[in-house]
Specification:
mainly alpha; cobalamin biosynthesis; Cobalamin biosynthesis protein CobD; transmembrane helix; transmembrane
Length: 316
């Protein structure tokens, strides 16, 4: 049932992608904002309480409906699974940005590529060259694919899969919504959401990195993962991007500069005097975007193949 649910949801999403501003997501965002406004008193314990209220209000009804569907009819449970996977997956939710950037760079229209990248990442892209635009687009696509597809796959395989998939996507959203906005960066309220998502995503992030290594340049992916992942400020992002960049043969991120600053702060030495080994791989280019598409699709097929084999093993 798990394999069929994911396969049907993927097929439906290819035909009818779910918009990022759909009513269901909007209601969840509204709920998170209301909980933050009501519970944020500047302490970590308030963020912990708010996090559990949001997660429980979303996962418990999902689990209850799944249980009722199982009691009613297996087909009803299958349909519920397909609906939840469709709502939690996001394989094509942001692909229009990536495709638009790729087409703009292919035609030499850098201004249009910068505009789409700014809309997607909410970063100031003024003055970015082709290499930087390509690098940021590849980075965002790899992270988005992990958090919207592969992370959901992993948690959907757990007992009460639909509720676990909802939990993962909600936890991922809260880790961003309660930490990344300018007015929340220095707040203790979002600390718990960030910490708990780190542990929720600990295994899925590493499985995604393994998948990238298997379907890409395995040797470079493993080498980059072992030697460069810890240079990112976000460990999980570092694992995915270092392995993904190694698999593609492209340098991603700016971990060296961040590592220099951290080492300088720790040892009180001049940053300019530090020299770190550069990552293997070439500078990002428009061709890297096409390579990233191929890497993601191969990783997806690998996940589906493993899931199919697991389903056969269970049936036998």
């Amino acid at each position: 049932m798990t394999f069929i649910s994911i396969l049907l949801a993927l097929l439906i999403e290819q035909l009818k992608p779910l918009r990022a501003d759909n009513p269901i997501y909007t209601q969840i965002q509204t709920l998170a904002n209301k909980i933050e406004a009501s519970f944020n008193a500047g302490k970590v314990k308030h963020g912990r309480l708010g996090w559990w209220i949001v997660i429980a209000s979303l996962t418990l009804p999902t689990a209850l409906i799944y249980w009722l569907c199982l009691r009613l009819n297996p087909i009803a449970a299958l349909l519920w699974n397909v609906l939840i996977v469709y709502l939690t997956l996001g394989f094509r939710r942001y692909s229009h940005y990536f495709t638009s950037i790729q087409l703009a760079l292919s035609s030499g229209d850098e201004d249009t590529a910068r505009r789409y990248l700014a809309e997607w990442t909410h970063l100031d892209t003024t003055g970015m060259d082709v290499s930087e635009i390509s690098r940021l687009a590849v980075e965002r696509s790899l992270i988005a694919t992990h958090r919207n597809v592969f992370g959901v796959f992993f948690w959907f395989l757990m007992p009460v899969g639909p509720a676990c998939a909802v939990m993962y996507r909600a936890a991922e959203y809260l880790s961003r919504a309660w930490n990344e906005p300018e007015h929340m960066k220095n707040e203790e309220f979002g600390i718990y959401a960030a910490k708990v998502f780190y542990w929720i995503d600990w295994v899925p992030a590493r499985l995604t990195a393994v998948a990238f290594a298997v379907v890409g340049n395995f040797e470079d992916a493993v080498y980059s993962w072992r030697n460069y992942a810890d240079r990112w400020s976000d460990e999980l992002v570092g694992i995915i991007l270092s392995a993904g960049g190694g698999a593609l043969g492209v340098r991603l991120g700016e971990p060296e500069e961040k590592a220099m600053v951290l080492q300088a702060d720790a040892t009180a030495v001049d940053v300019d005097s530090l020299e770190l080994e550069s990552q293997p791989g070439a500078e990002a280019s428009p061709r890297a975007l096409q390579s990233a598409v191929g890497l993601v699709w191969r990783a997806l097929l690998l996940w589906m193949l493993l899931l199919l084999l697991l389903s056969f093993a269970v049936w036998i």
